[in-house]
Specification:
Elements (H helix, E strand, L loop, with lengths): L2 E5 L5 H17 L12 H9 L3 E6 L2 E10 L9 E2 L8 E8 L8 H15 L4 E6 L4 H9 L3 E8 L2 E9 L2
Parallel strand pairs: 5-6
Antiparallel strand pairs: 1-2, 2-3, 3-5, 4-7, 6-8, 7-8
């Protein structure tokens, strides 16, 4: 198994959308309200890619995961109800999803490590992320990856749990 993390390309959109549709269905099956309102969608993915934010995780060249990764670009994080650990530059990521066909292979952990490597490569020590209160899979991943709960942010009209990890 050769796993790579790379920038997404417009030709990847159909495969990315399949990954996200599976994740949307899993959130629904979990009873989560996250991603049950038409977001994310192919237009969001296209915008991510056009802006250079879209990244895929490939497993032997098969698109196994997707996320959007940005630097200092989440206005909602300025209004946290709580307190971030750091106030400087940060990497933020959204729309984390692993393909139905690649679950159970440790690829979510690999994606998180790749995002940390992205941050280090940009000399940034802070990773910030948010998720729904009712997304047990992501909450578990964040806990295992060493993220610290910092408070709540409002994202797209809904309160979300906000987390930060400071890299060594």
């Amino acid at each position: 198994m050769e796993v790579k993390f790379r920038k997404a390309e417009p030709a990847d959109i159909p495969a990315i959308w399949e990954v996200l549709k599976g994740a949307i269905a899993r959130r629904k099956a979990d009873g989560s309200k996250q991603w049950q309102d038409g977001y994310p969608n192919p237009e969001v993915v296209k915008k991510d890619i056009d802006n250079g934010y879209g990244y895929v995780l490939t497993d032997d060249n098969d698109i196994a995961g997707y996320c959007a990764v940005m630097i200092n670009d989440e206005p909602a994080y300025k209004d946290i109800i709580g307190k971030w650990i750091t106030d400087g530059d940060f990497v933020v990521y959204h729309r984390v999803a692993i393909s139905e066909n690649h679950l159970g292979k440790g690829l979510a952990k690999k994606m998180m490590t790749s995002i940390e490597d992205f941050a280090r490569g940009n000399n940034i020590k802070s990773l910030k992320v948010d998720t729904n209160f009712d997304n047990p899979a992501m909450l578990s991943i964040l806990k295992k990856a060493g993220y610290v709960y910092c408070g709540e942010v409002v994202f797209r009209g809904s309160p979300r749990k906000a987390f930060e990890k400071v890299l060594d």
